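Entry type: protein chain
Record version: 2
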Amino acid sequence: ATAMSEANAALSLDARWPKAFLAREMSRGLGHWFERAGAQQEALAIAPALPPPRFRYAALLQEVGRIQDAIAEAEGTASLDDPRSGSEGHIRLAMIKASSGDVAGADREIEAVGAASDLARFMRWTTAVFWRTPTDALAALAKPGEGPRDPQLRRCVERYLGGLVALHQRTGHCKGNPR
C-alpha cells in the first residue's frame, strides 16, 4: 500500500491524529505546495506544539521562498525546547539562516547543538563548504577535528575548494561557491 493510502486509513480510524496528516503531507514529495501546506496546517491545528509538522512547515516555507516566515517558524520551534525534537530545530534553523546569507546566525544555532558533537562538526563543515568563501572554507576544514572524517572525501573537497581559490586568483571572477 502507498504511504498516502496508509495515512488515509489511519485518519479513518482517528481523524485527530496529527502524525497521519504529516504522513499525508510527506507522501506528496517535492512540489504540491498547496496540498502539503493543507496537511501541515491540519496537523498543526490538532497539535500546534508538535515539532515534526512545525519543522516540515518551516521547510515548506523555505522551499517556496518565504525565508523570513521560515526563520520565524523554525525559531519558534527551536525555542520550544521539546525533547522530542532533539537538535532538529536548531539544525533546520541553521540551514535556513545559512542559505539566506546569515552564516553567523547559522553558526550560533550549530553551537546550540553542542560544539563537540558529531552533528555540530558536520554542520560546521556543511556551512563552510556551501556558504563561505572557498578560502574561508579551506581554513575551517584545516582546524583539527573539522571536516569529513573520510580521507578520500576530505581530499576531494580540499581539491575542489583549492581549485576555486586558484581560479579566483587567476581571473578574479570566482568569489565563492554557487548558491
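Comment: Residues 28 and 36 are 7 Å apart (CA to CA).
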